[in-house]
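lol ok so funny story. i was supposed to be doing the assay writeup but got distracted and ended up predicting the structure for this chain instead. priorities right. anyway since i did it might as well share w the group, maybe its usefull for someone
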Amino acid sequence: MIIMGLDLATRSGWAVRDSKKHRASIRCGTFSVAENNDGNKLEWEAKYPVAANLFYRLLKEHNPDFVAIERPEHGVRQFKKKGKVDLTGKEETISTINPAALQLTGIFGAISAVCQIRGIAFGTIAAVSWRPVYFGKGVKPPEGKDWKDLAIDYAQRESIGLPSTKAEQRDAAEAIGICTCWHNCAIPEIKWMQQRFMDLRTGAFEAKRSAA
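and the output, tada:
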């Protein structure tokens, strides 16, 4: 059984594991929708089809049976930002949002559509759900480190090959955790996907494939 994990972002991390092999055999990497082949910045609407195309290539190469995706936030967080100084000399405080969060929803939509078209079941899992399973309950990053640093440390302990650059390692390493915790995913209310997920978890999928 081949499981793929995705940590979606402008530069998305991916990881693929064959359940019959040791964790050290996990393959991982990243794909980016920041720029086109000419090095020009991609605008919002261009990022989504590019993400779909890059993901489609990964599916063709690795042929996963299931794709686990870190769940995008269902809302957009607001945060305070200092604005202009008014006539009295007082600095204004304004509410704003992170536009990357909106783009992430679009990227997820493109990825999930490719899964549906290709007949590959997928599920989503929140970071607060997979991290306690992967790292252990109560584990938190020590001072000066974050969750991505912990994910890199874990991959190195398990002798899992990571990309060459630190930036890519940070995204790919978390995809390994998502991939490993696939069985905790929430499945869309699509009947065939839910059945496929149950078959994968119980071993029925492998039995059906062997009998075919």
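Strands lie at 2-7, 11-18, 27-32, 66-70, 78-85, 91-97, 121-125. The two ends are 15 Å apart (CA to CA).
back to the writeup now i swear
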